[in-house]
Design a protein that fits this description.
- By secondary structure, the chain is of the alpha/beta class.
- The protein has nine helices and seven strands, in the order H-H-E-H-E-H-E-E-H-E-H-H-E-E-H-H.
- Strands 3-2-1-4-5-7-6 form a seven-stranded mixed sheet, with helices on both faces.
- The chain is elongated, with a radius of gyration of 24 Å.
- The termini are far apart.
- It comes from Microcystis aeruginosa FD4.
- Keywords: Methyltransferase, Transferase.
- GO terms for molecular function: S-adenosylmethionine-dependent methyltransferase activity.
- InterPro entries: Methyltransf_11, SAM-dependent_MTases_sf.
Length: 288
């Protein structure tokens, strides 16, 4: 499949890869030995990741091309792909343990219908795990418009929507962070090890500092009518061992620095001085 900007495909690198893969990696514990539906599965990579741990996974997508690609590319006995809609899911009522829907709700405006359909297929004790862009930081502040998004939600809107459909909802924030890591060379970092956070605020303490997720780019919500306190909710960090984002930034910075140096050379040359004199003369003529 070719990347168009509407759906992520695993061949893409950079920030978008971190964001999409991390979401599926982060929920592995919640889908273990469960019956799972992946709404808007797209190319199928996420359904495939979950199928390595789940009892069974069905990826649902509106696109026949996506379904055909996924059926051909990802094959496991416990993995199927079906064409369907978020408000018309081809699954029996009360038959699913976990519904996963990442970056779906902003692509349409049938939000209530989608939630009603999810409730229909979930078992009474089932859970929904979904993500949604934070309209403030994704669109408003950067003045960004995604042509594939129909109706993005603010946090308050998303919270009301989910609270109206589930008794218990827990929210998480996701965004790319810049950090420096110190890890032993002769051993790996275990998930249960203690990690200290040192926010860059020029206030250093011997004790662990707290880190609070502020202004996330995406919200991730875990929803259920059952008590969520029994779920092993764990914050997580996605680490790219190849550090492709850092390498890209280094390359871009090097290229920018060279362009800046070239511009300075031009500015300091006779040509640059003549141009500066000409611009001053034009400004003088315009104001006289």
């Amino acid at each position: 499949m070719k990347f168009t900007g509407e759906r992520f495909i695993p061949s893409e690198k950079g920030v978008i890869r971190y964001e999409h893969l991390h979401r599926y990696m982060a929920i592995i514990d919640y889908v273990k030995d469960k019956s799972v539906i992946d709404i808007a599965c797209g190319e199928g990579y996420g359904s495939s990741i979950m199928s390595a741990f789940a009892k069974n996974v069905s990826g649902i997508d509106i696109s026949p091309e996506c379904i055909a690609n996924a059926q051909s590319k990802y094959q496991r006995e416990n993995l199927t792909f079906l064409q369907g809609y978020c408000n018309q899911i081809p699954v029996n009522s009360r038959s699913v343990d976990v519904v996963v829907s990442f970056e779906t709700i902003e692509h349409h405006d049938q939000h209530e219908e989608m939630l009603a359909e999810i409730k229909r297929i979930l078992k009474p004790e089932g859970i929904l795990i979904m993500s949604s862009p934070n309209r403030v930081t994704y669109s408003d502040i950067p003045n960004n418009h995604n042509p594939f998004h129909v109706k993005e939600l603010y946090y308050e809107e998303l919270k009301i929507l989910l609270d109206n459909n589930f008794k218990n909802v827990q929210f998480y924030g996701q965004k790319i962070l810049i950090n420096s890591a110190i890890i032993p060379l002769n051993s790996s970092l275990d998930a249960l090890e203690k990690i200290r956070f040192y926010p860059q605020n020029n206030q250093f303490h011997d004790e662990n500092s707290e880190f609070k997720m502020e202004n996330p780019i995406y919200f991730l919500a875990i929803c259920s009518d059952e008590n969520l306190n029994n779920l092993n909710i764990v914050s997580s960090i996605y680490i790219d061992s190849q550090a492709d984002i850092y390498q890209d930034l280094q390359k871009t910075y090097k290229e920018f620095s060279q362009v800046y140096a070239d511009l300075q050379d031009i500015k300091n040359s006779n040509f640059g001085k003549m141009r500066e004199l000409w611009m001053k003369f034009k400004s003088f003529l315009a104001t006289s």
